[in-house]
Design brief:
The structure holds two protein chains of two kinds.
Chain A (H helix, E strand, L loop, with lengths): L1 H46 L4 H38 L5 H31 L2 H15 L14 H11 L1
Chain B lengths: L1 H17 L10 H14 L4 H18 L1 H42 L9
The chains are: A mainly alpha, B mainly alpha.
Chain lengths: ~170, ~120
Amino acid sequence: MKRPWLITLLGLALALSTTGVIYVSRTAPYRALEAACGPDLAWIKKEFHVAGPAFNGVRALHEKYTAACMERCRQIDEKNRALSALLSVSTNVTPEIEQLLTDAAVLRKQCHVEMLGHFFEISRLMAPEQGRRYLQWMQAQTLTSTHSTMIPQAGSKFSDDARTLEHR
Amino acid sequence: MNSEHSVNDEDLSRLLQSWRVDTPLPPRFKEGVWRRIERENASSPSLWQQCWEVFVGRAAGLLRQPVGAATYLLALLIAGAGMGYWSSARFANRTEETWRTAYVQAVNPYSTAPER
């Protein structure tokens, strides 16, 4: 009766080790790539097949851009904090508030311009077809309407209130 | 010949009828018999146990044969390989999703989760 049990255990050990070997060997490239590039650049490298000097260029541009981006975010946050402080003591839109809103909008516009410029620069380092794909995908991710959540949907409280106001 | 047989049968019959057992039964013999019957019924395996024993017996029989053992090992090897492929594919999908999100959020702090 021992031999069948030994064969049973051997089979289970074989299944487990096969699972482990295949899993480790197929996931190793992902772990290696993430360790080498970080998760953000790993995606660029794999998805758009960027390698060698082109990837070094992408990495340099990305690091330069993200550093500048953080600085712009800091400036925008500063404006928002100042605006928040003013709004807490104001009862109408003062010239100072207007100026802060303008400054914050200018910074955000600059941010968008830099971001799009960065996308174009990155796409130029890729193969033409990959660069086009990259631009299309990034533009879809970053230029979707930010006002879609402000438009009342049918059946929502806000659309019902709006209809009530119209009929008065 | 027939008459000899019939005479012998009658003698045998008379002898058997004359046999009497005088030894008394042990005390509470009948009670003991019923108790044993009850014990046997109580300890008899349930349906699941019987099915399991049949299964184990047949499996052991198959595994004792070289063809059966080889088939079993091959089946588990294939199952293990399938499991390895499936789980690594899931890992790859999840990882790429994480990477994609990380990149979009790195270049656009105002972004929400990226669409595929």
